[in-house]
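Dear support,

I submitted the protein below through the web form. The confirmation email said the job was done, but the results page showed an empty box. After a refresh the structure appeared. I'm attaching both so you can tell me whether what I see now is the final result or a partial one.
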Amino acid sequence: MMLCWASTAFVTLLAVFTSTTPLSHEGVCPGTQNGLSSTGSQENQYNLIRDRYDGCEIIMGNLEITQIESNWDFSFLKTIREVTGYVLIAMNHFQDIPLGQLRVIRGNNLYERRFALSVLFNYPKDGFNGLRQLGLPNLTEILEGGVQIINNKYLSYGPWIYWQDIIRDNSAPIEIQYNGEKGPCHSSCGDYCWGPNESQCQTLTKTVCAPQCNGRCFGTSPRDCCHSECAAGCNGPLDIDCFACRHFNDSGSCVRQCPQNLIYNKQMFQMETNPNAKYQYGSICVSQCPTNFVVDGSSCVSVCPPDKIEVEREGKRQCELCSGLCPKVCEGTGAEHRQTVDSSNIDSFINCTKIQGSLHFLVTGILGDDFKKIPPLDAKKLEIFKTIREITDILNIQSWPKELSDLSVFSSLKTIKGRSLFKRFSLMVMRIPSLTSLGLRSLTEISDGSVYISQNKNLCFHNSVNWTQLFRGSRVRVNNINSNKPWETCVEEGHVCDPLCSDSGCWGPGPDQCLSCRNYSRDGTCVNSCNFHRGVPREFANHHGNCVPCHAECRPQYGKASCTGPGADECVACINFRDGPFCMSSCPAGVNDGQKGLIFKYPNRAGHCESCHLNCTQGCSGPGLSYCLENGLAISSGQITGIVLGVPAGLIFCLVVFFLGLLYQRGLAIRRKRAMRRYLESGESFEPLGPGEKGTKVKARILRPSDLRKIKPIGSGVFGTVHKGYWTPAGETVKIPVAIKTIHDSTGRQSFTEITDHMLSMGSLDHPYVIRLLGICPGVSLQLVTQFSSRGSLLQYIRNNKHRLDPQRLLNWCVQIAKGMYYLEEHCMIHRNLATRNVLLKSDYQVQISDYGVADLLYPDDKKYNTKTPIKWMALESILFRRYSHQSDVWSYGVTVWEMMSFGAEPYTFVPPQEVPGLLEKGERLSQPQICTIDVYMVMVKCWMIDENIRPTFKELVSDFTRMARDPSRYLVIKLESPDISAEEIHPTDLERGRMDTDFHDEDVDALEEGLSTPPLCHSPSWNRYRSRLNSNRSDISQTGPIGYLPMTAGPIDSIRQLWSQRPRLSSVQTLPGRSEAMEHTSETETQERRLITMVMFCRDQQTKLKKFAEVLTTQRKIQNIS
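What the results page shows now:
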């Protein structure tokens, strides 16, 4: 009957359990350790339990449910599968607890140090309410500890479970008494069950196993044994078939230990870092510890052990052994409540390594203070200071115990920072008659301040010290060393440095008090020679002249050096064995190689470690199968031969297929690259349109609609929509990513079925700062194909990276946009819609102008252009009279620069578009951006002049911004807000890449004066006359006042301009500290000058605008009356 029942139980087990799966940190919750104590009221106790364990699968700690009297809803406990500590259910009045998924209790912590499961006193004194069913039908393993079920008056099934099958340790205590009567089980359950239903049978996974099984099983057959790393049962023989893991769960596989940090490298013959290492977090292997834990070896811990310190390595917090005493920072003396070191506060310096502040030794501290009832300081207590390595302020010794003749209690002191000095001194020793030497043998640095050593009548050796060797910085330090024991007397008495000391001096008698050694040094003591050829241990000398012991596995040599360095791979010969270049005490045996395999080696006659046969799994004593340490082999020699021949053949075949695939992919990539280069860089030539005319080299191609494929829309504008797409040239398979702009004519009056001269002009443009037009696809709607910019528009980039932009890059972009617009001007191409949204980012250091010439493809009176015109970027004459020119593009350029300097802000943010012309007529302009100086802002203001003929040209704008870009920090002031990013760290190559646009030499300026290299396509005579008239107007205006303004009076402005031109200019090569000092002296004068000039210029502009727009307003009123 038992056998039949076991079979039924196993079927139930397979149906209920699932195999082990990886668990995320979200399913892990901390436990409690409150015992039988409660927290607040019944409701508060229940809420705390629910908030802690809701959604938990693994509890790292103890599950304690105590003193709950009402029948609250405990359904949130149904998800718990594992408890690493103990389970305590005590003094409750509910009838059932739903722990149906709990499979294993690990017992890492035990209740009363004995029990992993304790259920007691779960019934009221009066009444019939109490725990009746334990509700643990899937509990099949308790790894450590026993079971305690006592004084549960109504509990009738749980106490009668066969606990010997659940508890792994047969010696663990089982205390079950004073519970309810045993209840009847279902007929299919046999004698053991968790309740009366058929689904509540106890599943046996230990006591019914075959003798061959050493743990749990899933059947009674010898083939039904669970893996040795399984806990709580399994549904198969593999380590991935376990219901829970005995030790650790590594991504669903039960393992004895998580992948270690160090693995054995078979090629390098040494241990190295495992890139796939994981850490033990409870019973789970995790690749990263939770944020509130640190790595200690191969485990996740909440705090480091006492002998380790928490450090951060490569973004990971971990525990490392302290080199000596772990660092401890202590408060110094000098404050009102802590004026000197005395017997009342000296214990606060125990184990301190760094003093934050100063150390003062005054008479009231050494001899005691009767007024404050502080006894004298015991001289032996000063040994506490032997751990001090650094003092941040000063060391002031004005009193010292008579028993001590030196300051050797500070023998570990290395640095005196001198951040806060007493007068100009950071080390002071005065009026100490018992002092014969300083004894500061480890002192190597006095960061700031001088030395004051005076009136120590018995002090010697101090005059031998080379104090300048200790000082840091180039500043000359003046020491005050006087009224001590005369140097001649010290020499006569033999108080001189040891002969092994160098000329740098010493702190006292003996070879261990030298500042530096004449020959070699061993552990801080000067010696004649290291143990190169004799002595124990053998040594070598490093580049500092320190004697360093050879590795312990190096064999001592006679008559020659035993090693060349400290490592085991730098020995001349080995004492024991050699594994590759490394000397070792034993050959590697059972070392993990990081590939779920173990390495075993044996020593040959020469003492070299050789690898065991691959089938030796327990080590070997020699080569071949016959030397394996295990009893027998499961593989025949014929099978071994087949494996030996088959594996290399398979590897060679795989390698051949792999390399052929690489060559094929490489060929495809090369063909695709050549095709893209051919179509992106080449163009087409068109025949002359008339006799005597030259053919135009047009970069763009005439495309068919079938050559283009639109993928998704990426934006829409005034004249059409833009799609991301692909261009597949005829006869090619390559897909070139492009941007496709579709031009619509809503009126139906414009046809795009034929190629026009304007289209050819657009297709012939080729400039680094103007987006290339790759193709033109005529039809009902014209499609313009350009290069696709994955980085998006300049507006989007500036808004997303405003905290990372520096002045150099912003001014470089200004230069590039001006160059591109100058190129368009030279080729008779008016943009009409210049803004940062129409400037694309080719790279972090190069921008390109897009959407040029599109407006000229439509009729100038198109209604769409009326309703969606970008008013806030347009010049006033373009808004009122629809007059567009290169000078109206200059206005838009000024607004574009304003957008960049305002980090993508919208012009006139709170002003409706229809009100903008009125503001411009009143003289209102965009305000000065916060980062701009008056020089940059005045360039913008000149771009927004009412009279278009006195606005600067793009050629002048290129020159202005090129000059500014040579000294960017003078014209733009940007404060980086990110605390961990500095101006030098943001773009380490800005000064290399960015200056390609701004580092103009004289010849560059001359070339700019002559024009760009690409000749203009056309210049009409009227245009030439217009430019000459414009230039003459500029020259006339420049003679009477600042550019762009009509003079109100002749005298004052001339004197102001002369004063401005004669003001001292800061050198562009001046260093930042020097520049800031100069600016402090001139800032007030310059500010007044700038304000005065700005006010006069705007007054003159206001006078001009009143005259100009009187006629404009009259004309508008006449038009309105007629309409």
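Response: this is the final, complete result; the empty box was a page-load delay. The first helix runs from residue 2 to 16.
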